[in-house]
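Below is how a single chain appears once it has passed through the pipeline. First comes the sequence as given, then the structure the pipeline wrote out for it. We keep one example in the README because the format questions we get most often are answered faster by looking than by reading.
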Amino acid sequence: MAATAHSLHVVLGSGPAGTALARELVRRGHPVRLVDRKGEGPVPDGVERFAADVATAEGARAAVDGAAVVYHCVNVGYHLQVEVMPRIQAAVLAAVESVGARLVVLDTLYPYGETGGAVMTEDSPWQATTRKGRMRAELDEKYLAAHREGRARVVLGRSADFVGPGVVNSTLGGAVFPAALTGGEVPGLGDIDLPHSYTNIEDVAAGLATLGERPEGDGRVWHLPTAAAVSTREVLTMIEKRVGRPLTVVPVPEARPFGPFDEQFMAEYAEMFYQHTEPQIMDSSAFERTFAVAPVPLAETIDATVAWYADWLGGH
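Resulting structure:
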């Protein structure tokens, strides 16, 4: 099914990425259905809310009915990922195969595993040793195999750690900005002097929408537009300047509960903590060249995120 200006685009998952993507697709003129298990909550004009459990064959099939392009932005509780994400993949892949829709998958850097600080490109080897990294790599192999075998048209867009308005459950989110704005303790995970890539949630949305509109990108992994990596300390200094007060940065040298990250989450996150003890540098130049886009400058991202959190705190 060829996507036209009036073809239905279905976004699975209404977290920060899915919600930002729905807004971006509407801005680009597409009819949009936003799917989650409850089908409730505010939506941008032009977005249809839809309730379905896409971990089931019936739910996934109902969710994508009539779609030209489907975007898989579903995530689940960190402690459930290894068990549940493969079930969601199986249901979603079967559903898009049955309706003939293209599938755009939001992906992570987890399949690369520990890199020793090497810059990550789309050609980097997948050498994950963690449970969640291996799981993601296995899912990605299945997505690409489905494309190679002609069962579905699939493309993957990988992102670094999210940052931006609406992003709370991120290492540069709800543990950092509220504390920065109120004089609380800001966690410094691992070695904050190492370079670390952060992807603006609006770049995630724009990148996925571009992949949805540009089928010539199908059948491979792309790194979504991401500003050049700087050290986390530099990011915290940028925040400090914008909030007008020095930050109280508390070293967190290993995975332990802190702020919104509870014991259950950090116990699961421990195997991924290498991301804060070696450089995490993601190169998105292939996407930028191919699709003639540029990421939002980091300074603008921090401006928008500080402003959003100030409003958010005002409402809490």
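Residues 162-197+228-281+296-314 form a domain with the UDP-galactose 4-epimerase; domain 1 fold (CATH 3.90.25.10).

See the next section for the split statistics.
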